[in-house]
Amino acid sequence: MNDRAEAASDKIRTIVWLLLALIAAAYFGPGWLKMLRPPPGLLLDFSQEWLSSRNFYAGKPIYRPQVEALFEHTGFIPNRKEDMLPWNAHPPCAVLLALPFAKLDYPSAHLAWNIMMLGSFGLALCLVFPWGIRPWKALDWFKLIALALACHPLLAQFIQGQLNALLALLIIGAWRLDRAERPAMAGVCIGLAAALKIFPAFLFVYWAMRMRWSAVVGGVIAFLIANGSALALFGSDAFATYLRLVLPSLDFRRSDWGNVSLPAFWLRLFNPDEAVRVVPFAKAPLLGAILAYGSQVLIAVVVALRCRQVQTAEGRTRAFALAIIGMLLITPIVWTHYFIILLLPVVLFGSRVQQPIARPVLLTAYAIFWLPLGLFLLLPMGSGAMTGWESKRHALPPAQPWQSLAGLSVPTYALLAFFAIAWWATRDERPMANLTHESTA
Question: 104-113: per-residue pLDDT in tens?
Fold first, then answer.
């Protein structure tokens, strides 16, 4: 009787998820298909790498004012120059990765880039979900389709042509190699990730605290080789410009509306940049700096101590996942599309945490990760802010302190709650079947 009831329950769940997958495909599918290859005339974040790559093939410096490069390579002039970053914000190695796409027109290059990133994310999913434990049922596929299509960070990854899918693959690859007792190769993965975007270098804390210096050495070598290749192609002026002009030009983003990191939370309250249109709770630059840097140090220490304490393979997996969450919390600039980098901790702790109090909080955090930031601006700031905070922010009134706390900071609260629950869960080092290829039956 129990088997029959369980079979009936599985059938109902399968039908429900099939319906949800069909609804997601009907509602979100057209947007996905449209934005994988953007229409002509629409240049998105990947245009930064594309323009820099075109500069290289034209014999020009890869870091030129973007408005100038845009006009030379496309003939376009943005309606508002301030809507476009003055420089390509990404490191030289990101430009190096984009060189094969530079000969294509922008929509085709964006599509080709997205195909590479789609493959990267698909491989990351394969590494997280060890399908060899049991065959996937139709129910599993329907869940994956529905959740993936409705995942706003994932959609934003492909709309903007971001690097996060590849970063997720490299980070998850590092985890799998570490579990296979290949720390040097794991370090190589993180070194390559750090060459593309600097912030993954934080994950070396995990190996440093465990005295696995081969991982650190492997990562440093990979980082140097990648940057050495970029140096050989682009010259030292590219790196000098990136350090001297590009990075300082991004300072205003540290308190931006869409920045969901913990330092950004404090800076919006006490020392926002005038360009981001946020009214501070109190103008106190020193207090803002103390809280911003102090919270970074605190999170880093908590992660380091947990990485130092764990003993088993299971404990190391959870400590590494905790480090990924901590990495996003303390990185100075974090957008909501970075949340796909949380793939490993989301899957790990989603199956691990079952406590009556923690479970609802965790699922609420996951729901917040899935949704667009604009949705959280609806109640405190109105529908205009919800729909126009990215494209028409200059026309919106500045965010008041309570609006910043009640709207802009919601994803930060979710990330903090996730970190706290993950930290609590890392105390338990018992094995888990779904991520380790071990059976606990």
Answer: 999 999 999 9
